[in-house]
Structures are given as structure tokens and as C-alpha cells.
Design a protein that fits this description.
Blueprint (H helix, E strand, L loop, with lengths): L1 H9 L2 H4 L9 E5 L1 H6 L12 H10 L3 H4 E9 L2 E8 L3 H10 L3 E3 L2 E5 L6 E8 L2 E7 L23 E6 H4 L7 H7 L5 E10 L5 E9 L2 H24 L7 H6 L3 E5 L2 E8 L1 H7 L4
Antiparallel strand pairs: 1-2, 1-8, 2-3, 3-7, 4-5, 5-6, 6-7, 8-9, 9-10, 10-12, 11-12
Length: 279
């Protein structure tokens, strides 16, 4: 009972998020175990990316089997993760040293894909890892202590929270989603949650809080107009094959109430499998 109570307390989302740097950051949380139980994502038939395959071969860790949940934060100081799952710590340490890194006590460090990117990780518990990618090669240690509890966390198996300042940052949006999401740059904060439907598919739900009621009315209108434009473009290019992201975005419907704009998109299992191909 004490062990169960301790585990629940450690993985309480309000406490877990308090470990992350207190910055206006892009944050996300995914309950992988719940999605796996629902059959999502499925086993991809596509060829794995070489770097991911190398990581699997070197550590024996496969998120489709071993990962139960992950919380992440993306900000100017770096990218931070706390993941829950089944880890072979000896293999992880060996992987770091074999790839030019080093380990001292619990902390391991290694060079990232660029000179200014350093990867660091350490166990928080037997079933939890703290990992950071930053200019600071000790960044993972920032996740070792808790802070003040974080309020207003979405109640969903998976969610994304993005401050408006992040959306307004140059080149923040991927090119294939820029047309759709650029309308959201007027919002103070955007929260997207993902939940299961009775059909077995997933529904994405958007909540965007704007500064004024007029801003919210304009945003809802822009989202409806952009969705219609994308739907028309998809119809014209259908013969050459569908774009998975565009197919998702064209299914959106939107409402506005006071300063809040909400939206919903159906996310089919086949689309999730396509988006996770190769990993």
C-alpha cells in the first residue's frame, strides 16, 4: 500500500510538472499505456529511422512496449522529458559511454547531433527517467527536485499546451501546418487534448483563450475559413494522394463563446499509424 501510494504521489501530474523549469514553455503529456490498451498506435510496417533503430539495438528500449507515459517541456533553455516505463539502466549507461559520453554516479552525458546540443539523463526512480537536450550538459539535474504544484492541467490521456508567445516565435510552426495554425497566434494560450471516442478512434479537442471577445470571434472565423480552404485544396489534389496532416485538419469544426474558441477533429487509427510510421 505504501509503495502504491508513493508511486501515485510521484506521478501525480501536478507534482510531476512542477519539476520542469518555470518558463513559458510548450508542454505535452502522453499516457502511452492508456493509448496502447486502446490499440494505439499500432505496429508500424514502415522501415525504422536509422538513428532510432540504433538506439533500440543499443539499449533494448522500445516505446511501443516499454514506455508507459511521458511528460515533456520545450523552451529556450532546452527540451526536457520525464518518462515512466521499463528501463535497462546498465544498457543505457553503456550506450552513452559507447557513443562518446560519460557517466558519473547516476548522471550520464553525451554529445547531441550538433555541437551546441548536449544530452543528459538520470534515473529519478527505477521506473522513471529524467532526460534533457540543452546547451547545458547538466540540464537533466533540473528535473530532480519538485517545486510548487502546477494547476489547470487537462484531464485527458494526451494533451499539448502552447503559449501564444511560442506560436508567435519565427519558424515555430511546421510548414505543412503553418496555414492552419497561424490563425492561433492571436491567442494567449492554446490547449489541445486527445480522448477516445466510442468508435475506438481518437478526437482532438482545441481550447484557445483570446485576449478579447472580438479576438475570439475573429479567430473562430479564420479557423473556419482556413479549414474550408484546406478542404478545397485536398479535393483538388486527391488524385495525387492525400496528405495525412491535411486530411486531419480538414475535419475540424469550431465554436466561439466569449473569449474562448473551441474546435474538434476526428483522428482515425489509420491516420495515427501513418503519422507514426518509421518509429
Amino acid at each position: 500500500w505504501l509503495r502504491t501510494r508513493s508511486t501515485r504521489a510521484f506521478f501525480d501530474p501536478h507534482v510531476l510538472l512542477s519539476r520542469f523549469p518555470a518558463e513559458d514553455a510548450f508542454a505535452m503529456s502522453v499516457d502511452v499505456a492508456t493509448l496502447r490498451h486502446a490499440g494505439l498506435p499500432g505496429q508500424s510496417r514502415a522501415k525504422m529511422e536509422p538513428e532510432y533503430k540504433q538506439f533500440l539495438d543499443g539499449t533494448g528500449f522500445d516505446y511501443r512496449r516499454d514506455l508507459d507515459s511521458v511528460v515533456a517541456s520545450f523552451s529556450g533553455s532546452g527540451t526536457y522529458f520525464i518518462a515512466r516505463g521499463r528501463f535497462d539502466w546498465a544498457k543505457l549507461r553503456d550506450y552513452a559511454t559507447r557513443n562518446g559520453g560519460s557517466c558519473y554516479k547516476d548522471l550520464c552525458r553525451m554529445q547531441g547531433s550538433r555541437p551546441d546540443r548536449h544530452i543528459s539523463f538520470l534515473p529519478l526512480r527505477k521506473d522513471a527517467i529524467a532526460l534533457a537536450v540543452s546547451t547545458n550538459d547538466l540540464a537533466a539535474t533540473r528535473l530532480a527536485k519538485t517545486g510548487a504544484k502546477v494547476d489547470d492541467i487537462p484531464d485527458a490521456p494526451a494533451w499539448i499546451s502552447v503559449p501564444g508567445s511560442e506560436l508567435r516565435r519565427p519558424n515555430a510552426l511546421p510548414p505543412e501546418m503553418h496555414l492552419m495554425l497561424s490563425a492561433l497566434t492571436t491567442a494567449d494560450r492554446v490547449v489541445i487534448t486527445f480522448g477516445a471516442l466510442s468508435s475506438g478512434d481518437i478526437e482532438a479537442h482545441l481550447e484557445a483563450t483570446c485576449r478579447t471577445r472580438d479576438d475570439a470571434r475573429v479567430l473562430a472565423s479564420q479557423l473556419r475559413t482556413t479549414t474550408a480552404t484546406l478542404r478545397e485544396a485536398l479535393t483538388k489534389t486527391k488524385s495525387s494522394g492525400n496528405d495525412d496532416v491535411m486530411t486531419l485538419l480538414t475535419g475540424g469544426s469550431f465554436e466561439q463563446k466569449d473569449r474562448l474558441v473551441t474546435g474538434n477533429w476526428p483522428v482515425h487509427k489509420s491516420l495515427l499509424e501513418a503519422l507514426t510510421a518509421g518509429i
